[in-house]
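Dear colleague,

As promised, here are the two records you asked about, laid out in our usual form so they can be pasted straight into your sheet.

NAME FIELD: protein one
SEQUENCE, THEN STRUCTURE:
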Amino acid sequence: MARTYTRARLVALVAALPLALLANSRASGQEPALEVFYTKLEPKEQFKYKWKGKEAVCSAGVFRWEVPQTEFGTNGLDRNFTGYCAEVLVPITADKMYRFRMNSIYAPSNYGLPDDEKGPAAAERRARYIQELFGRYYRDPITKSVNPDEAVAFQVALWELIQETEPAEGEPKRDLFAGDFQANYPKADAPAFVLKAQDYLDALTGNDALYYENPDLRGRELVRLMGIENADKVVAQSQFALRFVGGGGVGAGTISRALTAGSAFGTAGGGAPVGGGGFAGGSGGGGGGVIAGNPGNSTPNFPTTTPNTTTPVNGTPSSNPPTTSTSTPPVGGPDNPGDDDNPPGGTPGQFSNNPVPAPAGLLLGAIALGTIGSWRLGVRLLTSK
């Protein structure tokens, strides 16, 4: 009788195993959205640039983010982390709550690349340069003193790697004084942080192995935090950040190459967003949302924003970066980015309808029912012999 009972339990366990594996794969493949509070941009500098000939002004620097205690998990990010802007034309305002979803740094849409046979290879090349930039020049601004010019230069160099248009042949030039994305200064009169950013770009060779040699990056993976619509119907600019390896469902236990849907990176103590506000941190609205004529810590006038639904660079209809109702360019980008002037960096909101993982109770209940049913069937089969 004891042997029969043991065999029945084994039959039940074998029958329940596929259900358990299915439930685990569904849960691990879907990372939940994360709400994060943007506190300030520090250090920061005003940066004048041109995108396809259109002049604009933004703040470049280090974003400072905080995951509130109401968020049970942090997807591998520290509660207080830094980031770098990944979308220079998308405005953003300090002291606001924004929502993000993890996205791979290798997604072609991050760089405005088409999803054709050339897109993935070009995206991987850009991601390789970005990882090399982090390997060579990233310094954790939370755990050590960081030179302000170097911190801002890091963000500006990152924008060049993300925003520059992909040529028909060859690689895009990494030149802040030529191409579609440019620093809007005569080279002889450019600020120190712009010249430093060009020095960073000139040193890049495409060797991302240097990423793993930087002690400030040990145990962390580079991700892209893709902005999605928050409670106020506003889409944040996406960020590059650092998180602990294995800290989230997607890409857990691997380097960020495993993140295939597009990603942002939050750093447990470091990181940086690309595209609209340099090193994470700073006071005021880094990368957008604050009037450019209101520098320092004075009370800014925040323009209202309204989503503009058009066709982005990659040709996929989605919600483009919000446009401002003011005539003065905000810190994060030009006044009214048009259909043809949106830069690479993703299409905010395109994944805002991501499926929500089923509650754990339902998955466990299904496993339990399957186990009980299989156990009863096994007992009947064995006792009938």
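NAME FIELD: protein two
SEQUENCE, THEN STRUCTURE:
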Amino acid sequence: MVIAAVSKILLASSRTLRCFSVDSPLTEEARQVVCRLPNLRDLWMVIEKDTQLPLVTLPNLTDLTIKYDHDSDWLRVFYGATFGKLAAVTFYCESEQIGGFLEAFRRVTLERSARNTLSTFRLYTSCSWNPNYSSLLQFTQLTILVIQSSCRGGCSSTVDDDVVTNLAQAMPRLRTLELGDPPCREIRTGVTVKGLVALANHCPNLCNLRVHFHVASLHIPLEASGMASGTVPTVLWRGCALTNLKVGEIPIPEETMSTVALTLSIIFPNIKEIDCVDDNWEEIVDAICITREIIDSQSKDRPLSTP
């Protein structure tokens, strides 16, 4: 009854429809229509298993959300599709076999204009997954990249310095970067201070960050982490806009808090909020604000030198 009712509403309003966002499958006739609406800007689709999809021709679509709960090829909506203005795509997948999805997505959009217009890519899955992030490097216009997978049963993150550095260099417009689940307590592979500096350097507009990282690497003097002696304190990465850092369950020992606060204030001087489980991180935010006030006071008396 719901499918029939939703489909009937769609058919009755198809001439003027600009947004269709309904968490329900459609009848075959309605599917034919919704995939060819010339004025449609925003589309949320629920694709049932083995559903036959018509050729998608949506020249004005800017936002596409697909929810898929089975193991079949749920990228088939892109095969032969025409997307002239697609800017944001979001996938919700409960499939147990997500596998090489990112590589498959890159292949089906390789010859499509979507690769040049896409600014937002989100994928949410409840399974443990180790994606090949390099498949996304050709999407250079991305400002939002969110890939959420599960750490249930053990840390599943494979994000390291090379991953975030390659993404940062390829996507300098990034404003939000969230990879994997909120950081867990037992991080096997993670970003170090070197990767965080690369993000700050290459992505000046980055505001929100969630990656698994090794807090122990923030205890080390920045010169020892691969930075040239003297460059970090003079550059101060003041161009990086990061205000929100999501650290999840990463613990922080009290004896290292002052060093961590100083290091983060140098890399990300604009931090205002840290999403955390360990309350010690709240004190880090306070310390960063104090450090920022000191740096701002000193900069008024002495101009920053260039690297």
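A couple of things worth noting about protein two: The domain at 2-214 is CATH 3.80.10 (Leucine-rich repeat, LRR (right-handed beta-alpha superhelix)). The first strand starts at residue 19 and ends at 21.

Best,
R.
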